[in-house]
Every structure is written in C-alpha cells, then in structure tokens.
Amino acid sequence: MTGRRDRYFDTLRAVAIVRVVAYHAFPYAWLELIFPSMGVMFALGGSLMVKSLDRNAGQAVRNRIRRLLPALWVMGVILVPLMIHRGWPDRPSWPHLLLWVVPLDTPPASDFGYAAAGVLWYLVTYLWLVLLSPVLLALYRRARLATLLLPLAGLALLVAHPMAGTTLQNVLAYGTCWILGMAHREGDLARLRTPVVLGLAGACVAGSLGWAITHRDGAGIDLTGRPLAYAVYSIGFVLALLRWSPRPAFAPGFVSMVNNRAVTIYLWHNVAITLAVALFDPLKLWRIPGQAWEDAADFGLALAMLAVAVLALGWVEDLAARRRPRVSPFAGSPPAVGAQVVLT
User: Fold this and answer.
1) What value does the mean pLDDT take over residues 232-243?
2) Residue 67 CB burial class (10 angstroms; 0-12, 13-18, ≥19)
3) Quick check: is 20 in a domain?
4) What pTM was computed for the model?
5) Is 28 a member of any domain?
6) Chain segment 280-326, per-residue pLDDT in tens
7) How far is CA 30 from CA 26, 33, 121, 236, 283, in A?
8) What pLDDT band is residue 331 in, cutting at 50, 70 and 90?
9) 293 Cβ contact partners less than 8 Å away, ≥ 6 residues apart
10) Which of 143, 156, 282, 334 is least surrounded by CB atoms within 10 angstroms?
C-alpha cells in the first residue's frame, strides 16, 4: 500500500478512537450511529494483517501479539494488586488471573476494577482474530463470498440459540469486518463498481436501522444491544470507507499522536472518565453554572487524567514496537507501514 492509503487509515483510526472516548463519556446512542468505531477498527486490522501474512504467517501473528500485550500487562501489574488490596470477595483462582497475561477471554475484575476491565473485550476479540487470520485468509482466497458470510451466519445462529459466551459472539460479530479488511488489501473492494458498493452499503445501513426502528424497546434506536443488526450496520460503513482512498489533511500532528499511543488511550480512557466522575463532588464542579459547562469541565478533567496516563505509560508501546521509548507521543518517526495494532 502507498503512503496515501496509510495516512487515510491513520485518520480513520484516530476518528474511531475519539468517537469511542466520546461515547464512553457521553453514552448517547446516536454516537454509535454516526460512526461505528469497532467495526471500522477491526476492518483496518484485517487489512493490515494480509501483507504480513504473505511474508511470514507465524511471524506476523507473533508481531501483532507482541505489540498488543505489553500495555495490557502494565495495566494488570497496576490493577490486579489494587483490586486485591481493596477487597475482591469473589476473586477467581490464580489460573483465571493468567487471562491478564494471555487474554483469550476477558480478564477477571472486581467491581472496583470494572472501569478498566470493561473495555478489554476488544483486545480479546482482536487477539482471536489475529490468531485466526492465517486460516481466514486461506479460506477467503478459496471462497470469498462464503467466507465473508460465515461469521454472520454463525452470529445469527448464536443470537437465535444462545449457547456460548460473549467472546465467541464478539469474534463472530466483527469477523466479517475483519475479512472485509482482507478483501480491501487483496484489491477486491476496489474492483467493485461504485453503484454496487453504494447499494450494498446503503442496504446494510438502512436494513439495520429499519430492524432497530421496528423492534425498538422504548429506549430509542440503539443498535449496541442487537449484535446482528449492529454487525450489518458496521459492514455498511466498512464497505464505503474502504472502497475509496481520499487523501486527508486533517490535524496530522493529532492523528500521529493518537496512532502512536492508540493502545494506551484505549486501555486507560474509561479509567480516566470514571475518576473524573468520582471527583465531580469533591472538586465541587457542580458549582459551575449550566449543565453543559458542568459536563465540559468533567470531560476536560477526564482528558487531563488520560493525558497523564499517556505520558506516564505510553512508552510501553514504543518498547512493544521495538522503538526507543519516549515520553512524548509526538516525538519520533511514525509507526512502520502495516505494523500497527489497530485499536480504539
């Protein structure tokens, strides 16, 4: 891929992460609708995986795992002792705590640690899709359409007859987005004619919204509780976003910073938001006139604490990428093409 495409990917990743942070701070359903970050990020991951797999499949998987896990280990070193110290009535046995080392399922957490562990499902899903990538790519090259539809068929079966945990559901829900990323890297999306892409994307988005509207439960249009509808909705966005490759010029310094510290931002943003909420009364932010200004002050406090986490812990991502560790997320050269872990 050219640098042009990589800048576009970096911009999509930055927008996705900003949207995730905004949604966790202000959980309005419409934020999920304007940009389904998770599906987009899994699609970027699938695309970036293909070229590495063609060079050396085993090395590609090892490199992705190496770049993904160290930041999680640092969180575990900090959080697990804190959870034990504060009391963990239903603490699992030590073998279950090893999920903080190799997260094949969501690592266990106490109520105190849920703000941190609650976002780790993404890393678990990403890890499984990385591990499955050699098989998925081989299947895709043999039977393209069938491989694209396979995760959706499995998800439909799982939704109709629940028989497994959330990890399998998440892998199936975002598996097609991951494989669409592979289709992008293979050039198959570029070969589709514009009316076909727009028609498919529009059908996915409109069909999902139509389902949500006709099956609303009184809480408005919210796709997050409807995994199959949300998966199809995300597919519509992925089809449109990966079919074209504009050359974005939006805030290159900010985009570079977010990409350099993507894992750290993702892992710690919800902790920062939770701490900001806890400090709302002690800091007497309620004295600020106007609800909008109160929310802005609280969100600003969360961003300040997230910045501290990025400065204090972001260097772990440099070590994982085999770069010289640095405090500033702006310093140094951009990550190597195709070597980034795609996170929100």
Assistant:
1) 96
2) buried
3) no
4) 0.91
5) no
6) 888 777 778 778 888 888 899 999 999 999 999 999 999 999 889 99
7) 10, 5, 22, 16, 30
8) low
9) none
10) 282
Give the count of domains, the chain. 1
Residues of the domain holding 233: 36-243
Mean pLDDT, the chain, rounded, equals 89
- Residue 283 domain-assigned (yes or no): no
Residue type, 38: M
233 domain-assigned: yes
214-228 average pLDDT score = 76
Instruction: Record the tokens describing residue 64, joined without a space.
Output: 């992705």
Nearest to 116 by CA among 263, 268, 266, 264: 268
258 within 8 A of 336, measured Cβ to Cβ: no
- The pLDDT score that the predictor gives to residue 292 is 80
Given a cut of 70, is residue 340 above it in pLDDT?
no
Contact residues for 92 (Cβ-Cβ < 8 A; gap 6+): 108
Annotate the chain with three-state secondary structure.
CCHHHHHHHHHHHHHHHHHHHHHHHCCCHHHHHHCCHHHHHHHHHHHHHHHHHHHCHHHHHHHHHHHHHHHHHHHHHHHHHHHHHCCCCCCCCHHHHHHHCCCCCCCCCCCCCHHHHCCCHHHHHHHHHHHHHHHHHHHHHHCHHHHHHHHHHHHHHHHHCCCCCHHHHHHHHHHHHHHHHHHHHHCCCCCCCHHHHHHHHHHHHHHHHHHHHHCCCCCCCCCCCCHHHHHHHHHHHHHHHHHCCCCCCCCHHHHHHHHHCHHHHHHHHHHHHHHHHHCCCCCCHHHCCCHHHHHHHHHHHHHHHHHHHHHHHCHHHHHHCCCCCCCCCCCCCCCCCCCCCCCC
Q: Rounded to whole angstroms, what are the CA distances from 62 to 49, 58, 331?
A: 12, 6, 26
Q: Do 176 and 125 meet the contact criterion of CB atoms below 8 Å apart?
A: no
Instruction: Write down the pLDDT at residue 330.
Output: 83
pLDDT level of residue 214 (50, 70, 90 thresholds): confident
